[in-house]
Amino acid sequence: MDGFAIAASSTAATTSIGIGLGVTAGVVGLHLPIIMLLAFLPVLGIASAYARLNRSEPNMGSGYVWVGRSLSPWLGFLVGWIGLVATVVFLSYTTAVTGSALLQLARLAGLDAVAGLTPDPDSTAQSTALGILVLVAVTLTAVTGLRSAANLQKYLLVFEYAVLLAFCGYGLVVGPHPFSLDWLNPFTIPSGQALAQGLILSVFCYWGFESSFSVNEEVRDPADASKAGLITLFTMLGLFLLGSFAFQRVLSQDELAGNGAQGLAFLGDRLADQPLAALPLIALTFSAVASLQAGVIPTVRGMFAMSRDRTMGPLWARISPRHGTPAAGTLAIGAIAAAVAVLSLVLPKIGDVILASVNAIGVVVSLYYALIALAAAARFRARPLTVVVPVLSAAVLLALGGYLCWTFYTSADHFEVSPDNGWFMLACPAVMLLTGIMAAAWAKWVRKSPYFVTGRGTDPDAVPLTA
User: Fold this and answer.
1) 3-state secondary structure of 402
2) Is residue 373 within 8 Å of residue 394, measured between CB atoms?
3) Where are the membrane-spanning stretches (predicted)?
């Protein structure tokens, strides 16, 4: 249950439905249900690879360890690095989303002018400033340990899911727009680029189910991590399909694409009067807060595993004698995410921050997942039947990511800091990967980590982190 709470909060179904569906609808139109279903198939193949690797070698470094030992230490390090930078970007934009949701609540509460400042949910500056305060609070909570963090997640999840089921279920029944079989027809999506980008965005929505594997050294039985991850993934599929159908029953395509970060709040306004209409917005706020904390926990444990192997600095391996957690690394992740959130102020609208962040994370996560699937295929190649699914899943994700990067490259002839500029959208994931290669070179030739020789750290039998 604790693993499910962490993984479900990290996947953040309420945030994905409230924000991700509107962003995706802006790309694929009224095809959300089929896009969510198609994206689920390769991700399910990735989940099966995670489960098999976890049974073979439970390690909080998960993908970093498995890819390093099955394929290449360089690729393994890159997987660990992608997990770090993708989560930092995720935390930075979720910080702004959290602040935006709180500002919307302030408006609903009639706080139109607080300290002489009018709440503007579309303002990146206001949203980021308020969200950083929340980030500080949840980071401090994560320091105290997995148990306290998981308990908080459970209460937040119960409320979120109750609101989602109530409003989306009601919208599914009373929505003014009739069901259409075209919603389930991928061949009427406007273009190949729209299909690829929609699938990448949907893969991003599922991202986070693997968080349960990052705490497999802190649970009684590592198999519980696999169960929690798979249960989370199927739960997300059900919620995303429910949300997709409900949104398209209640909202038009223009309303879906035009409301971005306020999509779930807009749905609430269409289905109920105040104060009931505020419940989806409160659920979105809770989801954003929970995903902030859930994003910190697995990332820090991945960095702990890398530090144990001397591929990252000793800061990440420092354990709090009071709480038994990597407290210093937890605080560092929170601080870095806050700094990146401040840098995102170059994009003045919260919707632009979301679009740029989600596309960049989607591309690198596709590579991250594909490498883990290939690691499973390489490790269990003696059993041909267990190789087919991971290889096919990896091929689909690599093809999607590669095609999307190509369309970004060919869609512009100059660079501009804007989510409408293809070169900027390509530069974001490219910077993530290039910094990873540089960090790997530093770890190999400056830190002289034995991981790059053996695929193992200096102490493979180190005592696991305890909860």
Assistant:
1) helix
2) yes
3) 32-53, 74-103, 123-143, 155-175, 187-207, 228-247, 277-304, 325-347, 353-378, 385-409, 421-443
